């Protein structure tokens, strides 16, 4: 990863086009809190210094694990800056973005070293608000941060991560991010991987709509799928089995020409008919 911020920057904005007019942080109210997660410590220190000079309070972490340990005892920041590639650490940049959006509902700016369409799609699917290519001009990064902060409407109270580590799947099952498991109200648990969590979140986001196989692959893995790659099929199979361990009414159907769809058995016939119309 690049360890410097250059004079020029190529970037893509996820969402509507908006003017890049920098605003002093005083116009946004009190000093805003930002957390940076990047496994390049030198880059983190440099970015921290430059953002502090712009009036932000900035902390950085070189792994997702270190960040979540800190957030167990302190309130979340106003915005996160996450590196797309976090080396061999788990979760990776995309998985971490999903976690942050699920936990905190805060803006996320993704930093990456490439401008492939697949990367943009995967960041969008993970919930990122901004997508900026390194190396970048600090003035432009600040403008994008301020745009995100102005448009963000916080809908949850500031609180430590321990209070919001679960995502409701249905009336009986919750996803525990911290324990990486599906938890039934009766106490049963099934472990799940980061990729299985990402797939489940895609299904929950789409509701009764089907998910195209290639789009699901890009959203989860961050690159274009080889036609012979069966990773997504194996992932669907594993998630289907684990859901049915807790509730045998769950179905994940392979719909020829449409992709996949997840629903409960009691509504299966109606939903399949709707999807295939």
Brief characterization of the structure:
The chain is an alpha/beta fold and 277 residues long. The protein has helices spanning 41-53, 64-71, 93-104, 117-126, 138-151, 194-206, 213-221, 231-246, 268-275; strands at 11-13, 33-37, 57-61, 79-83, 108-112, 130-133, 166-168, 173-176, 181-184, 189-191, 250-255, 259-264.
Features:
six-stranded mixed β-sheet, 2 domains, 37% helix, 277 residues, disordered N terminus, four-stranded antiparallel β-sheet, 19% strand, Rossmann fold, globular
What is the H-and-E element order?
Answer: EEHEHEHEHEHEEEEHHHEEH
Task: Determine Rg (CA atoms, Å).
Answer: 20 Å
Quick one: overall form? Answer: globular
Structural class: alpha/beta
Mean pLDDT: 78
Helices, by number, come to 9
Report strand order across the widest sheet.
1-6-5-4-2-3
Helix content: 25-40%
CATH topology of the largest domain: Rossmann fold
* Through-space gap between termini: 47 Å
Strand content: 15-25%
Give me the CATH architecture of the largest domain, please.
3-Layer(aba) Sandwich
CATH class designation of the largest domain: Alpha Beta
- Going by CATH, the homologous superfamily of the largest domain would be Response regulator
How many domains? The number is 2
Q: Major sheet, described briefly?
A: 6 strands, mixed
| Multimer state | single chain
User: Would you count the extended β strands for me?
Assistant: 12
Which segments are poorly predicted (pLDDT under 50) over 5 or more consecutive residues? 1-27, 154-163
């Amino acid at each position: 990863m690049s360890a410097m911020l250059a004079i020029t920057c190529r970037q893509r904005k996820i969402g509507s086009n908006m003017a890049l007019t920098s605003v002093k942080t005083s116009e946004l109210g009190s000093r805003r809190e930002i957390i940076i997660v990047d496994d390049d410590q030198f880059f983190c220190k440099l970015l921290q210094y430059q953002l502090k000079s712009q009036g932000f309070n900035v902390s950085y972490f070189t792994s997702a694990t270190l960040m979540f340990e800190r957030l167990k005892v302190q309130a979340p920041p106003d915005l996160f800056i996450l590196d797309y590639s976090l080396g061999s650490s788990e979760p990776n940049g995309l998985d971490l973005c999903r976690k942050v959006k699920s936990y905190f509902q805060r803006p996320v700016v993704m930093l990456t070293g490439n401008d492939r369409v697949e990367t943009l799609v995967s960041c969008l699917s993970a919930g990122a608000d901004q997508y900026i290519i390194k190396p970048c001009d600090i003035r432009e990064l600040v403008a994008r941060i301020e745009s995100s902060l102005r448009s963000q409407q916080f809908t949850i109270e500031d609180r430590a991560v321990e209070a919001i580590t679960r995502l409701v799947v249905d009336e009986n099952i919750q996803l525990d991010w911290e324990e990486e498991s599906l938890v039934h109200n009766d106490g049963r648990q099934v472990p799940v991987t980061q990729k299985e969590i990402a797939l489940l979140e895609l299904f929950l986001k789409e509701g009764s709509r089907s998910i195209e196989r290639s789009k699901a692959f890009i959203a989860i893995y961050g690159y274009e799928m080889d036609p012979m790659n069966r990773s997504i099929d194996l992932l669907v199979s594993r998630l289907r089995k684990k859901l049915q361990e807790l509730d045998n009414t769950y179905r994940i159907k392979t719909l020829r020409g449409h992709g996949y769809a997840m629903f409960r058995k009691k509504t299966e016939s109606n939903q399949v008919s709707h999807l295939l119309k």
